[in-house]
Amino acid sequence: MALLIRRTVAAPVAVIWDLLVDTRQWPKWGPSVLAVACSEQRIVAGSRGRVRTAAGIWVPFRITTFDEPWYWHWQVCGVPATGHRLRALCDDRTELIFEVPWPAAPYGIVCSEAARRIAILSEAAPSTAEHRGQ
């Protein structure tokens, strides 16, 4: 069981997925991520790297589950961390869900802010406007 942080985003799954898997984008939407070092720009199953946290320390991560374009989960410092799930509601609306382990429930506040930032970035993405015919 996990605490689920949900947000409906006015963007297609593909746009949001691109933000979620592109390590260059993580500092833009992740309040607890200042920088990322990873051998792949776009994570895949088994990707490993490090994130520099808001506390300024580098911690290792590993992608443990990867189901493109719907879900990925990771371990940070060897501990199961958040899951990142997408659910298509229609062509241009997606539910973004962060799965936070109960022992880390206070981290839900960080995930709520991350979801807000992802919504802003996704809804402003050029491919979202093109998808809507604007």
Summarize this structure briefly.
The protein is α+β, with helices and mostly antiparallel strands. The chain has helices at 13-21, 26-29, 108-124, 126-131; strands spanning 2-9, 33-38, 48-53, 58-67, 71-76, 79-90, 93-101.
Q: CATH class, anyone?
A: Alpha Beta
Chain oligomer state: single chain
Profile the largest sheet: 7 strands, antiparallel
Q: Can you name the CATH architecture? A: 2-Layer Sandwich
Mean pLDDT: 95
General description of the model:
- It is a single chain.
- The protein starts with a strand and ends with a helix.
- It has a seven-stranded antiparallel sheet with strand order 1-7-6-5-4-3-2.
- The protein has a single domain, classed as START domain (Alpha-D-Glucose-1,6-Bisphosphate, Chain A, domain 4).
- Helices cover 27% and strands 43% of the residues.
- It has 134 residues and is an alpha+beta fold.
Features of the shown structure:
7 strands; 134 residues; alpha+beta; Alpha-D-Glucose-1,6-Bisphosphate, Chain A, domain 4; seven-stranded antiparallel beta sheet; 4 helices
Give the helices and strands, then pairings.
Layout: E1 2-9, H1 13-21, H2 26-29, E2 33-38, E3 48-53, E4 58-67, E5 71-76, E6 79-90, E7 93-101, H3 108-124, H4 126-131
Antiparallel strand pairs: 1-7, 2-3, 3-4, 4-5, 5-6, 6-7
